Amino acid sequence: MQAVVRHDWTLAQVNALYALPFNDLLFQAQTVHRQHFKPNEVQVSTLLSIKTGACAEDCKYCPQSGHYNTGLERERLLEVEKVLTQAKAAKDKGASRFCMGAAWTNPKQRDMPYIIEMVRGVKAMGLETCMTLGMLDGEQAKTLADAGLDYYNHNLDTSPEFYGEIITTRTYQDRLDTLSHVRDAGMKVCCGGILGLGESANDRSALLMQLANLPEHPQSVPINMLVKVAGTPLENVDDLDAFEFIRTIAVARIMLPKSHVRLSAGRSRMNEQMQALCFFAGANSIFYGDKLLTTDNPEADADMQLFAKLGITPEQRHDVSDEAHQLALADAIKEQANPPLFHAAQ
Ligand code: SF4
Asked: Which residues does the annotation say bind [2Fe-2S] cluster (predicted)?
């Protein structure tokens, strides 16, 4: 069975994948995964919040929205130097991609010179760059691409049908327009969604259908599990069954065979066995070793231990300049399997 990159999925076809017996679904997903990726490699990114809180949007899951009182400390745009210091630390800890996120509706013109300096500086360290700054117009997308930004993250969050229950301050079409500006500017797209918002099974299928039926599949597809934050409207929503989450990873892997599927927010609430099943289902990217914006992310040590237990190594970049840093991370993981050595190296 050779996986085909398709853009014509129907809801019935996606629902049929979800309805497969669990073992059949995982077997199919793992088979597709092996056609396009090394089965025991996981790409590793680090995320830094460069501007936190007081966002004008009303995303009901988000502690950074200015519409809800979550006690989150607001921070203005970080100075370029501070961002570069953090990027260097992330690189030393083993990340190959550095993602910078700002809680904005969209970047303002006055912010662009600082943003551009951040992109250039991080890139100069040999890291891949990714940003999430809200909506972009065509010109802003081009400016960021010219500065060397590799990826732009902008999520669809959920299905078009359920979207209005979660966000009212911008439309689904606004999001699709930003994605199209990013693609047109030649940047890679990072786009996914969040599960556990109170959406139906059909909504989860419809989200994956939207992602797979875009003109190009996003190169990176974060699948988040809602982290319920007190003070947000979704703080008491029912938990999503863990198997439904794993099934979603598997269906995403089958529908988006060449995309990196990322275990993103909510990973710190997953035990090792669930994360391992997600890797088996086709997840091959994580955020590593730092705070995932404002929600907890498992510490680097725990990630290294899990990688060592599973025989997973960080994905090698095809960029020679980065080889030394990838080797250093591989070494750190090996040392982690031997605790005395690892701790001596701290
Ligand atoms: S998800 Fe993004 S756009 Fe929505 S409120 Fe949070 S920071 Fe703002």
From this structure: 99, 130, 190, 262
